[in-house]
Specification:
By secondary structure, the protein is mostly helical. The protein has helices spanning 11-29, 33-45, 52-56, 59-68, 78-87, 101-109, 118-121, 125-143, 147-165, 169-177, 180-190, 201-216, 221-224, 227-259.
């Protein structure tokens, strides 16, 4: 039986409902047969994948790994993923040339350019991958009902990793800018215009930090990852998307009236 997420209403009402029922819905999702099969297979077989070619050639293994890094949409791009994992993160590696930092995380963790296999270098990584895949799969299911709720859940889960793991505030903001789902939530919550993406990356970095200080009272990503500020960002994002959708619908209604 497949998991059917429940999202009642829209906007902040829907977000608050999902937060209240999150533990129950995640527990229900965790029993989904397709999910449990994927996880059981990867837990048992991940040590069999000694090369990037072997891993990318197996749909189940590839689905689990890419889901864990938020790259589930790349399951059909085996050549790209094979190249990223084969190169690692050394000089000239493909992952270091891509703006999306999720590829760099993947290449750093599952680096087939090393002499020692990734699962021997980091024995805990397979468990982390399984946890990430389970979370991403749940969020994807929610996203089929409401993509904004999916983005909010992802932000809620991931921003703390950056706040705690980055070597400093400047680095943390570059990581946010280089992670499309986090970047989108932050841009919308801070009210940044579409033209912001056209700026030089250093200019983006400076402006988004200034905007965070103005709107949130801080540009410290560790502080932003706190429950209070994180909730404030998500609420602002949900409201901004709700207003945007309302404006779009109003424009469509006006156009239909003019055409009638």
């Amino acid at each position: 039986m497949s998991f059917q997420p429940v999202v009642l209403g829209s906007g902040l009402g829907a977000w608050n409902f999902v937060k209240r029922t999150l533990a129950h819905q995640k527990n229900m999702h965790a029993t989904t047969p397709s999910l449990t099969r994927d996880i059981a297979f990867f837990a048992k077989s991940h040590r069999d994948f000694f090369t990037a070619d072997a891993l990318t050639s197996h749909p189940q293994a590839l689905r689990v790994v890419l889901g864990a890094y938020g790259l589930s949409e790349d399951t059909d791009h085996q050549f790209l993923i094979r190249k990223i994992m084969s190169d690692g993160t050394g000089e000239g590696a493909l992952a270091t040339k891509l703006s999306d930092r999720r590829y760099r995380e993947l290449a750093s963790d599952i680096d087939y350019s090393q002499d020692v296999a990734w699962f021997d270098r980091n024995p805990q990584l397979a468990s982390r991958i399984i946890d990430g895949y389970r979370d991403d799969s749940f969020e994807a299911a929610i996203g089929e009902v409401d993509e904004n709720i999916r983005l909010a859940l992802n932000f809620d889960r991931k921003i703390g990793d950056i706040g705690l793991g980055a070597s400093g505030t400047a680095t943390a903001w570059f990581q946010i800018l280089g992670t499309p789902p986090l970047r989108l939530v932050m841009e919308k919550a801070l009210g940044l215009p579409k033209e912001f993406a056209n700026l030089d990356i250093d200019d983006q970095h400076s402006r988004i930090r200034d905007k965070a200080k103005s709107v949130l009272g801080t540009d410290d990503v560790a502080a932003i990852a706190s429950d209070e500020v994180r909730d404030k960002i998500i609420d602002k994002f949900i409201l901004a998307q709700q207003v945007s959708n309302f404006g779009h619908q109003s424009s469509l209604q006006t156009a239909l009236i003019l055409l009638s």
